[in-house]
Amino acid sequence: MSNSTVIRNGRIMYGSPAGEIAGDLLIENGYIKAVGHLSSIPANAREIDADNCYVLPGLVDPHAHYMSPDPCGYRMLSAAGITTALEPIALVGDASRQQIKAAHTGLTCAALYLLMPGRTLPDNDPDERSIIQAVKHARQEGYLGLKLAGAHFPFTPAAMSRIIRIAAEMQCILMIHAGSTENRDDFNGMREAVQCSSKYPFILAHINTYCKGQSDAEQCEYARQAVQLLNENPHIASESTFSTIGCVGCRMINNVPESLCLQDMLRNNGFTVDLAGMRKAIACGKFFASGSVGEVYDWLTPEAGLRLLQERNGQITVGIVNKSAEKNTLVAAGRRSNGRFTVNAFSSDGGIIPCNVILQEALKRVEQNVFTMSELVEKSSFAGAQLLGLEHRKGIIAEEFDGDVIIVDPQQKKVRYTISGGCVVYENGIFNNNKENIFITELEHTPIFLQ
């Protein structure tokens, strides 16, 4: 018996470049089968009315954090319209796979193996042999590539250069959060990562993170410089976020945050770099903790945040408002001389972190004439699919593509339905938990930026 869904009366963003057509869409046995005027439909098809709503391809998020013993992060992505997501920080292959399978939210998942000095690599200046072994281990564990979180767990600039070169030579996806033993995740750290590339390709994560400044004007100036730097180095792929909140997961070692980024956040805001400083930062409302609220995670009140901090002995995720919305727009909208976008894709850097605002913020920019709806689809769906080598079956609405579709109310800027592989996994605030997640364990096609 067929498994069919018909979406009626929608404003369908069809093809690539996406063009709007009015009509219906048939998803059958997990794939898009017909778009436009449907002369007939299967007798048992479920029908959904999308009147006054956009019908978009499911978002493909190239930077989201969802791996957790509970399914909250997966649900949060589903509610945000994300049907495929890359987790950039993973360590244990089998445990990761089991967590992903247990969630049953219909998410197509992929992950990167985190490089850490003294843990997954011998030290902060590993030799070529150790790096090659790390690439091979990542592939054996079912990861699509590597993540270098330089600002959190820094390597030497020379080691960064070796890692970039070896990953490119082995056609392995490498994502870098800029920073090293010499620089932090600011514009200098970004420029250093570009210089270390020696024209070898990699993905430079969340570009707007490096555009730091004491004022909005200073952040915007760094944003312009960041776009110019990337325009001068077209071999580097990239993504950017829309949230104005900067977030860091906290792991305490002897009451001191392990992440150098979190240490910087505390120090730069006048708090001691320890558990006591975290308490004060949360108590005064400067930092806010993320925690479980029903079926999802959300930002907590200072009182609830302090309770969670105590319960987990500091092992929580915290956020701080530190990004200019105008800066985020400048980075996302930057273009090359040929008219193409400088930064390839939108990302959330969210998942289990309450920053899953790609769709809402991108729709605001459409209203402001920063992007067209076609460009929104390109940067939120198709470009992410290209970064993962999945553009042959995901990221656009077209016949025989995967049945990953979302129905969006443009007035409320809200996802009404998320359909993954033809299965309705989220509808009007309800999580159906009816489809097993898929974990992609090898590249189906070499991503364009690595070719």
In short:
By secondary structure, this protein is of the alpha/beta class. It is built from twelve helices and 26 strands. The mean pLDDT is 95.
What layout of secondary structure does this protein have?
Layout: E1 4-14, E2 19-28, E3 31-36, E4 46-49, E5 54-57, E6 59-61, E7 64-65, H1 72-79, E8 82-90, H2 93-103, E9 108-115, H3 128-140, E10 145-149, H4 157-169, E11 173-177, H5 187-197, E12 203-204, H6 216-231, E13 237-240, E14 245-249, E15 252-253, E16 256-257, H7 260-268, H8 275-283, E17 288-293, E18 296-299, H9 302-311, E19 317-321, H10 325-333, E20 345-346, E21 350-351, H11 358-367, H12 373-387, E22 405-409, E23 414-420, E24 423-427, E25 430-431, E26 438-439
Helix pairs in contact: 3-4, 4-5, 5-6, 6-10
